[in-house]
Amino acid sequence: MIPSQSQIPSPVRRGTGAGAVETVIVGAGFAGIAAALALRAAGRDDFVILERAHAVGGTWRDNTYPGVACDVPAPLYGLSTHPWPGWSRAFAPGAEIREYLERVVRVEGLDQNLRLGTALIDARWHDDRWQVATGEGVMEATHLVLACGRLTEPALPALPGLETFPGRAFHSARWDHDAPIDGARIAVVGTGASAVQLVPELARRGAEVTLFQRTPAWIVPRGDHPYEETERAAWAARPAELSRLRHALYAEGEARYASRAGDAEAAREARAAALSHLRAQVPDERLRTQLTPDYAFGCKRVLLSDDFYPALASGRVRLEPSALAGVERGTLVAASAARHEADVLVLATGFESARQPYARLVTGEHGRTLDEHWAHGMTSVGSTLVHGFPNLFVLNGPNASLGHNSAVLMMEEQAAFAAALIAEDTTVRVSAQAEAAYTREIDDRSAGTPWVAGGCRNWYTDPRSGRLTLLWPGTVSAFRERLARVRSELAADVPDPVLTS
């Protein structure tokens, strides 16, 4: 049995108690910390941050598998108000990112607002307030900010016989550090972002790795390298240099949007670069064929790696070019009918991203839960506001992810947007017509893109509707401009089909 995060007990360091507060923020990862800083900047200090785990860090707290690192350049994967010159590498290891967030909390004195080991149990709109229940009591709040993340609950495949596997079995995001690795037979299921980082590390540690691949990924060179001490010293002494680097990396990311979104020439060039990378690192033609995607570039998340292909080409990793179908008498059976023995089974199978686990805990003014409201896929206004849920702000939720640039940029835009509305001291409501209009806008922008028409299954779209519900179909600058329009429409009380209050 693989427990979900909500089943893992965490010590309560600070209880919430009862009482009233202006804003409750749920989640202490990047989004929650960004929301807290934005509220501070807007002059609103009356907030608490609820975090169900025992520490801050979000996905960088939960993911501790060998090789875990960010696939966004480190100088860009940080809060704009807290540039950090001390990153050890161009792509920061996961532990460093967690330490970075802990440092921000300390520097900003957010400990006094933080309630660790305090899970949201229920939140409902009642008498123009949010009633927020935790294991420590019920609070009233004027505003509720959901910064729970989209990569919180592991997606576990329904495999016949999985419970009979005799060895250790766990999700990559719930790494079992007591599991044997050196010399062990380890089966990894999945070839997404986690597996591409994990598999080479397992091979380096002497494991006999079998990799179950349902669908190959488009992979481009990573170009990771350590930062020299002289570089870090220069950035610390001259912050403007670090700022220039961040802006350059931002511009590079924005330029990548075209290839991910289906621009014919940009996609052709990016696809050629990925195939060249594959040819250079995998000399065996049969293996190359098995590792070549048959869907449009950008349809799935494009991965970055310099060592995944060499690990497979070296023979230290056995590729099973089909999905894991089940377990029979302790043996792993592939969809191809091939059978494989293993001592450890790692499920690198992604997360429940399309249907957010927190949604069932939040009830709006019409008596419906957010999960019920999103029964056919997540919808919103400005990727942040939801009809029927006054004074609710969802960060990093519907259509707020990116496939080309740093997601932290989007979180900061949403946090600033939410803080500005909270500071206006008015009840924020959006109409059903406004939400329908924004949903049509997302559908129109995504029509014909690789995300919905690229011939693959991805986590960007909702399997219930086929709609693009996770990814923002545009650049970061376009998102910033769109949020500005939402604010203007709210301020002007523009009639439907835009926003009403």
Unreliable segments of 5+ consecutive residues: 1-17, 495-501
* Amino- and carboxy-terminal Cα gap: 47 Å
Portion of residues in beta strands equals 15-25%
The beta-strand count equals 18
Largest sheet: 8 strands, mixed
Helicity range: 25-40%
InterPro entries: FAD-bind_Monooxygenase_sf (IPR051209), FAD/NAD-bd_sf (IPR036188)
Keywords: Monooxygenase, Oxidoreductase
Protein name: Monooxygenase
GO molecular function: monooxygenase activity
Description:
The protein is of the alpha/beta class and 501 residues long. The protein contains 14 helices and 18 strands. The strands form four sheets. Strands 1, 2, 3, 4, 5, 6, 17 and 18 form an eight-stranded mixed sheet that branches. Strands 7-16-8-9-12 form a five-stranded parallel sheet. The protein has a three-stranded antiparallel sheet with strand order 13-14-15, with no helix packed on it. The longest helix has 23 residues, at 239-261. Residues 1-17 and 495-501 have low confidence and may be disordered. Keywords: Monooxygenase, Oxidoreductase.
